[in-house]
Amino acid sequence: MIEEINLRTVYGIIKKRILMIISLVILAAVLAGAATIYLVTPIYQTSTQILINSEQSETMPITNTDIQTNLQLINTYSVIIKTPFILDQVIERLGLTVTAEELTNKITVNSASESQVIDISVRDANAAEGVRIANMIATVFQAEIEELMNVDNVNILSTATLSENPEPVEPNLVMNIAAAAAGGLVLGIGIAFLLAFLDTTVKSEEDVEELLGLPILGVVSPMNDSHKVRKIEQISLKEKEAFRA
C-alpha cells in the first residue's frame, strides 16, 4: 500500500514499531557483550625495543652516513627477526609447543620513519608468556646477528614487562557492543518497514482511492459511546411502545 515514502510516513512507521526496535537494539547489545566476555579469548600485547647503531671509536663521531647505513639495515633486520633461524631458537629456549610459523603470526615488527629503533610486539592469550617471548626474541636476535652479519650494532633499548593487571587489546568490549547495537537498530528499522509494506489493510481515504482508482464521495463518521447509548435507549422505548400497543 505504501509506494511513496515521505518523512511523515517514515516517522509513523518507526513510531508504531518503536518498542520492537528498542528491544532488538538492547537484545543485540546484551548478546554481543555476553559473547565478548564469556566466549572470546582475550589477547594481550607486549613489546620490546632494540636500537640499531654502529660501532664507533671514541675519537670518531657518528655521521649522517652511518645513520643512513643503519636505517637501511632495519628492513633487513625486521625480516631476519621473524625467520625460523631466530624463532626456532626462541621456541627451544622457552620450551614452547608451537611451530615457527605459528609464532610468526603472533609477532609484529615495526620501525618508526627515520628511526633506528625496532619495536618487536607479541600478542598472546597469556600475558606472561607474551613477555617471555618478546624478551627472548630480542636476546636471541642480538646474540645471533653478530655472527650472522659480522656486525655488533644491536642493543636492547627496553624490555617487555608484565604489569599487575594487564589489559587485553582484544576483544574491544565497548566497540563490539556499539557495533551490535547499531546492527540491531538497522535490523529493527528494516523489519518495521517490511511489516509496513506487507500490511495490505485499508486505513484511510487515500488507501481507498489508491486501491480502487475512484474518488471518495462520502465518509461514515465513527459512532462514539454516547451515540451508542442513545440509540439503545431509543430502541428500548420503541420496543416498550410496541408491547403496550
UniProtKB/TrEMBL annotation:
Alphabetic keyword roster: Cell membrane, Membrane, Transmembrane, Transmembrane helix
GO molecular function: protein tyrosine kinase activity
Residue span(s) of domain Polysaccharide chain length determinant N-terminal: 3-93
TM regions (residue ranges): 18-40, 173-198
Name of the protein described by the UniProt record: Capsular polysaccharide type 8 biosynthesis protein cap8A
Homology family: Belongs to the CpsC/CapA family.
Main location: membrane
Entry keyword annotation includes Repeat: no
Organism: Planococcus massiliensis
Keyword Oxidoreductase: no
A cellular component annotation (GO) from this entry: plasma membrane
Compartment list: Cell membrane
Topology versus the membrane: Multi-pass membrane protein
